[in-house]
From TrEMBL:
GO molecular function: hydrolase activity; metal ion binding
Family classification: Belongs to the peptidase M20A family.
Keywords for this protein: Cobalt, Hydrolase, Metal-binding, Zinc
NCBIfam families xrefs: DapE-ArgE (TIGR01910)
Cofactor: Zn(2+); Co(2+)
Organism: Blautia hydrogenotrophica (strain DSM 10507 / JCM 14656 / S5a33) (Ruminococcus hydrogenotrophicus)
Source taxon at top rank: Bacteria
Keyword Metal-binding attached: yes
Stretches assigned to the Peptidase M20 dimerisation domain: 189-320
InterPro entries in the cross-refs: ArgE/DapE (IPR010182), Bact_exopeptidase_dim_dom (IPR036264), Peptidase_M20 (IPR002933), Peptidase_M20_dimer (IPR011650), Peptidase_M20A (IPR050072)
Protein name: Peptidase M20 dimerisation domain-containing protein
Length: 419
């Protein structure tokens, strides 16, 4: 059969929603933990699914244990959308903490159970289902849809999205949808950047029994600097007029998810002193100490601005011999609220859920940045139950999975000129 209208495609998709639930469950049944494991088996499953749907696909990448799959439907010219999803999952961890087998893929009345249901095999199932349905519908696309299935998001993305973006797979795209878990109420349109700040303190060694009389304790010196780390948290993001509403939305959402008073995490630098190393033995005055501080940068904050504040923090402590270095450096990034991909997803999410869906910025970061760095308007929107993500007893609601699948299909119809 061949469909010509969006409504015909929708009816076809609605008749296949059980397949979408089963596909999610099938993906859960294939363990694909990262780190430690491999994504070989789940990637083979995805390739088979696409081939059986009549979609030509190709395995690409630079690490056979963490391969990617790319595919493309439609014609060369016209609007080009990328659909991205990762098939690696964080380790299940201590099995005694789970109320069910994390890899059973069990389907209950309301939910699908298991590691990776929300993050993000339900999202992956949704975009695979969307591509298959559009091909089955036989509609003519006024543009093309590219699929990026990646297998290395949970360990940084080096073999996944980063590799695809660095090797020409995202060129000339007009939009990108990353099906990461957001809940149906939120479309993520921006995220914070990140700096690893390495503070190094140098002292003078002496016998520990003479501490206070001889030597210079590098640990105590660094401690004095770290007392002022909150100076970094005072730096605020900068937002344009058309970003103000998304900022307000984001602060409300952050407060709801993390507790009252946490909304400021969105538009302020956050600073976590995560690692400290120093000293050799208790009976020696330490001559070296190092701390690594994870800084997250709101939209609009520059590296230079943060460096100025780091220098001021060291100066304020009044100690000599403390230096700093910057490790990984990424700026906050965003997509405009009126980008076609944002408007399409918002329109259909609101239509199907009958409630307001808010574009917002997130406080963490994800693969979306790699596409935004290439200038591609990129959003994240996907089914999720936040509770079990990166924890135990991860689940996803069947209603959420099914509606997300339909929202993807309807939005793609809009972007591909199918009325
Ligand atoms: Zn994820």
């Amino acid at each position: 059969m061949s469909c010509t209208t969006r409504n015909e495609v929708l009816e076809l998709a609605k008749s296949k929603l059980d397949d979408l639930v089963q596909l999610t469950s099938d993906l859960i049944k294939i363990p694909s933990e990262n780190p430690i494991g491999t994504q070989r088996d789940v990637v083979d499953f995805v390739k088979k699914y696409l081939s059986e749907a009549g979609i030509a696909c190709e395995e690409v990448g630079c690490n056979p244990e963490h391969p990617c799959v790319v595919a493309k439907i439609g014609k060369e010219e016209g609007f080009s959308v990328i659909l991205n999803g990762h098939v690696d999952v964080v380790p299940a961890g201590d099995r005694n903490q789970w109320d069910f087998d994390p890899f059973s893929g069990e389907i209950t009345d309301k939910c699908i159970l298991g590691r990776g249901t929300s993050d993000m095999k339900a999202g992956v199932a949704g975009i695979l289902f969307a591509m298959k349905t559009l091909v089955e519908a036989g509609v003519e696309l006024n543009g093309n849809i590219r699929l990026h299935i990646v297998s290395d998001e949970e360990s940084g993305g080096e073999y996944g999205t980063q590799w695809l973006c660095a090797n020409g797979y995202a060129e000339n795209a007009d939009a990108c949808l990353v099906a990461e878990p957001t809940s149906h109420k939120t479309i993520e349109i921006g995220q914070k950047g990140k700096i690893d700040l390495i503070l190094k303190s140098y002292g003078k060694s002496a016998h520990g029994s003479l501490a206070g009389y001889r030597g210079e304790n590098a640990i105590l010196k660094l401690g004095k600097v770290l007392e002022h780390v909150d100076m970094l948290r005072e730096i605020e993001g900068k937002y344009g007029e058309n970003q103000k509403q998304a900022l307000i939305n984001s602060k409300i959402i952050a407060g709801e998810k993390n507790g009252a008073g946490t909304g400021d995490v969105i538009d302020h630098v956050s600073a976590n002193v995560g690692i400290i190393k120093g000293g050799t033995r208790p009976n020696m005055v330490p001559d070296y100490c190092e701390a690594i501080v994870d800084l997250r940068l709101p939209i609009g904050v520059t590296i230079e601005e943060v460096e100025e504040r780091i220098k001021a923090m060291i100066a304020k402590s009044g100690v000599e011999g403390v230096e700093y270095e910057l490790g990984c450096q990424m700026l906050g990034n965003y997509t405009e609220i009126d980008a076609p991909i944002v408007e399409a997803i918002k329109k259909y999410a609101e239509e199907l859920w009958q409630e307001e869906v808010l574009p917002a910025y997130q406080w963490a970061s994800s693969d979306a940045r790699d596409y935004r760095q290439k200038g591609i308007p990129t959003i994240q929107f996907g089914p999720s139950n936040t509770v079990g993500i990166h924890s135990y007893n991860e689940t996803v609601d069947i209603e959420d999975v099914q509606k997300a699948g339909l929202i993807y299909i309807l939005s793609l119809c809009d972007l591909m000129g199918i009325d």
